[in-house]
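A quick aside before the break. I want you to see a complete sequence-to-structure record at least once, exactly as it would be stored in a machine-readable document. Don't worry about memorizing anything.
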Amino acid sequence: MSETITALPKKFKEKWLAALRSGKYKPTDNNMLFDGTCYCPLAIGCKVIGIPDETLKGGYFPNTRLSTRIPNYFNNDKGNNAQWQGDIINMPSRKSFKQVANWIEKNL
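That is the input. The structure line, written in tokens, reads:
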């Protein structure tokens, strides 16, 4: 896991955690953001801030289509993906969204 993790804005974090725990989304079994029916945890975070499915579909993170749509807290101070994104992407693919939410709640 990463050495330095930046805290997320409280309101966004609360909405993301609620969405991950809602049972509304089916997890993808790959790193694709959204494959048409299933999501990765980062895609759910994008949906929370209003990015539509058609923008997420078939994409991976980082994604140039998203670069102007995602908030600064999705990036580090050099404009690259924050390390916590990699931590989430590299979690064992069978982790449930509830387990991912627990990690986010504890670490971000």
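Two observations worth writing down. Residues 10-21 form the longest helix (12 residues). The chain has one domain: 27-107. We'll return to this after the break.
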